[in-house]
Amino acid sequence: MDRFIELLEGSRHCVFLSGAGISTFSGIFDFRGKNGIYRRFDADRIFDIDHFHSSPEYFYSHSREMVFSVGEKEPNFIHNTLAKMETAGMIKTLITQNIDMLHWKAGSRNLIEIHGSARENTCLSCGKKYSYEHVAKVVNNGRVPECVSCGGLIKPDIVFFGEMLDEGTITKAMIESSLADLFVVIGSSLVVQPAASLPLCSIRNKGKLVIVNDMPTPLDEYAYLRYNDLEDVFRKLEKHFFRGQLQAEQKDESSIKEKL
């Protein structure tokens, strides 16, 4: 951990890539972990764009738990630590494969959501935009969301299997990755392209790769440092960089409890 902390303190352009593994601490299932979505649902079918067009009710009924209940979920200590690190200037860019909006909720703003998110939803007929709150209310009442203007089908701004990634978004992610002298992968199995190739953009430009994930990844052999325990790593980062903040927050919590 001392070596990792030294890298973070010495980095001029640090980029993080986050995957679904970090959101398990907020009660959201990852995809390929031991309790992941792939063991419970056919996620390839749920997020298939052709199947969405032919059976939108299948997507909305099966995605309710993993997409349209995340508004009730809160960022965990990993999301919060990353946001604090960005504010402190330690992280230049956070790239995420996640669609759960928790980085945004935590306060990360130099954020690239390469698979989009449900923060915005679009009518496929007229292009009218809808908020997450509007669509979630309809979906959680057991209905397929339709446009109030034209009656068209509403789709979340998530990149489905079979859809092209937004060209501007992925180009920005590749540029940021190429600039990174330190690239840190957290909670990702690095099997979904093109996100899985982003660390190589850094390595080709002499950047160092750090991987924190509880399962092996295809890029482990390229990692300068490799850790298995996300919680342990981030508790130590939190303690090292934000000890004073933590103590102040704990003091505030104690004071509130005393008043109550």
Automatic annotation (TrEMBL):
Transmembrane segments: none annotated. It comes from the Archaea. The active site is at residue 115. Keywords: Metal-binding, NAD, Transferase, Zinc. Zn(2+) binds at residues 123, 126, 147, 150. InterPro entries: DHS-like_NAD/FAD-binding_dom (IPR029035), NAD-dep_sirtuin_deacylases (IPR050134), Sirtuin (IPR003000), Sirtuin_cat_small_dom_sf (IPR026591), Ssirtuin_cat_dom (IPR026590). One of its GO terms (molecular function) is metal ion binding. Residues 1-249 form the Deacetylase sirtuin-type domain. This is NAD-dependent deacetylase. It comes from Methanolobus chelungpuianus.
